[in-house]
Amino acid sequence: MTALTTTLSNVLTKTMIGTAALFAAFLASTIPTATAEAQTARPQCADRGSVLAQLAQKYHEAPVNMGLTNAGAVLEILTSDGGTWTVVVTTPSGVSCMIAAGQHWEPVERKKVGYVPSGSEIIH
Length: 124
Description:
five-stranded antiparallel beta sheet; 28% strand; alpha+beta; 7 strands; two-stranded antiparallel sheet; single chain
C-alpha cells in the first residue's frame, strides 16, 4: 500500500467508526421512546437463540433483514405482521442485544440506485 492509500484507508475507517458511533447514539436515544415497555428498559442481552425465541413468542417477530457491521457484529431487523419491530445486534463473542424496538413497521420497495459502469447513465 502506498502512503496515500494507507492515509485514505485510515480516514475512511475513522469516518465509518464515527458514523457508526453516531448511529448507535441515535438508536440509544430512541430506546426510551420506542414503546411503553421500553421506557424503563435498557438493552436486553442474551444468547441469540433466546433473544429470537422471546421476540417470536411475545411479539410474533421474525428476522427480515440482516447485515454485518464494520466491527464484525451482525445487525438484524425483526418484524411482525402486526407492525412491531426490533433491532438486534449480535457481537462477535455471540452476545445478542435488543437495541431498539417500535411499532408501525412498513416494508418499502427496494430501488436500485447507482451508475452504470460507464458512469454516464443512472439506473432507476
